[in-house]
Fold:
Amino acid sequence: MSSDPGDLLPQARIRRAALELFGEQGFHHTTIRQIAGLAGVSPPLVIHHFGSKHQLRQAVDDWIMAFLLSEKGTLLTGSVMPRASSYLTEHPEARLIMQYLITAMREDGTIARQVFDQVCHTTAQVIELGAEQGTIREPADPDATVAVLVAYSLGASMLGGHLARRLGGESLLDAGPMRRYALAAMELFTYGLFTDDSYLRGTRAAFDDTGSEDD
Amino acid sequence: MSSDPGDLLPQARIRRAALELFGEQGFHHTTIRQIAGLAGVSPPLVIHHFGSKHQLRQAVDDWIMAFLLSEKGTLLTGSVMPRASSYLTEHPEARLIMQYLITAMREDGTIARQVFDQVCHTTAQVIELGAEQGTIREPADPDATVAVLVAYSLGASMLGGHLARRLGGESLLDAGPMRRYALAAMELFTYGLFTDDSYLRGTRAAFDDTGSEDD
DNA sequence: GTCTATATAATGATAGAC
DNA sequence: GTCTATCATTATATAGAC
Structure:
């Protein structure tokens, strides 16, 4: 990802092409012929180097996870935050990886679970640190809150096209939609949505009712 | 959906089987042979009645949208709220439809846009009503806030498997995970996540900076 | 390591009998 | 309306030459 595709060895060119096409079109809609074509090699060479299409995806997944972990969570925490915009300007190659991860989450590929858990891990650290510093309120159920926040963030990324369309743009990464998205989200997490805790108490009551009635 | 599959006419059985299999496996992973098998007919009959696999999906989409609109938003607003649990107990057939919609959103089918917009429409009404009644705080950017809330809700549904796993269960619809999910979400939307507005002001400042610097 | 040529399997869709 | 038999296409993966 740090050099021109033409400078890479065939094996790396194939992996890079697979990363790009899997991310754009999804795993099942991408053919080995397309990958070979983009990498400038013959289809059988793809199989020769990686064994099968599935093993090729696994190789891409492994490569990406190694990249993500080496970044020490920089990309994972910032993936849907405002700073993502500036990060992507500085690291344009991260676009491909983000697109790959979003597509992989949609297709529920083998990397989806690793990514979800890894983002949870990183988010939990952010929450903990903020709680210590007093900038973040301590949740009643920290693990659940982290999981919900991650599901919200990744989910919004997966629905980025629809979200951007409602915000007057094409991609969530464009300046306009990203600004409206980030500000609306920050406002929600700063002031909340409800004016008092009646909804929360109502939800608690509803679950306590059904919880004792169902058994 | 209101009778046993065996009582339906072949055409309806095919549509029902397609709804079930498309929802479970996705459109592209479902074969006409599978649909025909589940409906108890021969594969060519599927084509004979619906023209093609894509037209069959369109027929299922149309059928579902008609169902959703006839429900006057009951299912759409409640799809990820606590009351979904009780709703599903009363209307078990809604499970198939929810699963279909979630899969369709993941695959970005033609119905995805309609559903996203329809849920936005319904959510906007809920927000407006709450604002009038004083139970919901008036957002600075109502349209964006609605879109974000919908993306969060639908996104969490799409990632329901991962979310449930982190919450100690298999499905988000199970009592345990649903309870923890609903309470964590309600707490977020009641008290927010941050203890003050420094993150919000920081985000505003960051966008104002990049907004004037980039050009 | 890399290619051309090909095997094999599965799919959506068609033809035509009943 | 419904079936059996089949076509045409496309995909992954293999065989073997260079």
Remarks:
- Chain B has a mean pLDDT of 90.
